[in-house]
Amino acid sequence: MLRVNNSLLSFIGCLMMLTGAIAATFVGSLYVIKTRLQLYGLHATPNSGRAGSIIVTSLQKMIRTEGFKGLYRGLSPTIIALLPNWTVISQFMSNAKVYSCRMVGDGNNQLTVGANMVAAAGAGAATSTATNPLWAV
């Protein structure tokens, strides 16, 4: 039977939350641009014809009009929403792996690639279902 070290799972869960927060910080400005383009459309942003110019022009305009702080609007709610997101993923994944090892694991408590993929898909579905209201706000 597979034994799960709860302190290790807690540590991994904390690392997942930290990496999610760091990733959200790095791509936060791109989410702001994406949301504004969805709301206001392309006509609000002049295009010079070069590849990627919409993003660069949007970044320049946001820095000019709102300052550097404008690039990270909505970052706090995103980071707050990531906490339960990664908690659900880590808990579901660990439980799915324990259950899968009992059902299809080999004698060494190792899961097959397919069983790992099913556990990950289940974790993604559970996370989307449980945390969807947080992302809709």
What does the model show?
This protein is mostly helical and 137 residues long. 75% of the residues lie in helices and 0% in strands. The model has no long low-confidence stretch (mean pLDDT 76). It has one domain (6-136). The longest helix is centred in the N-terminal third of the chain and has 35 residues, at 6-40. It starts with 5 loop residues before the first helix and ends with a helix.
Short structural description:
By secondary structure, the chain is mainly alpha-helical. It has helices at 6-40, 53-66, 75-104, 113-136. The chain starts with 5 loop residues before the first helix and ends with a helix.
Describe the secondary structure blueprint for this structure:
Blueprint: H1 6-40, H2 53-66, H3 75-104, H4 113-136
Helix pairs in contact: 1-3, 3-4
What is the CA-CA span between the terminal residues?
Answer: 42 Å
Gross geometry? elongated
Radius of gyration, in Å, reads: 20 Å
| Count of the separate structural domains | 1
Low-confidence stretches: none
**Helix and strand sequence:** HHHH
Give helix % range.
over 70%
Question: What is the SS-derived class?
Answer: mainly alpha
Averaging pLDDT over every residue, what do you get? 76
Q: How would you describe the oligomerization state of the chains in this entry?
A: single chain
The share of residues in extended strands comes to under 5%
Q: Helix count?
A: 4
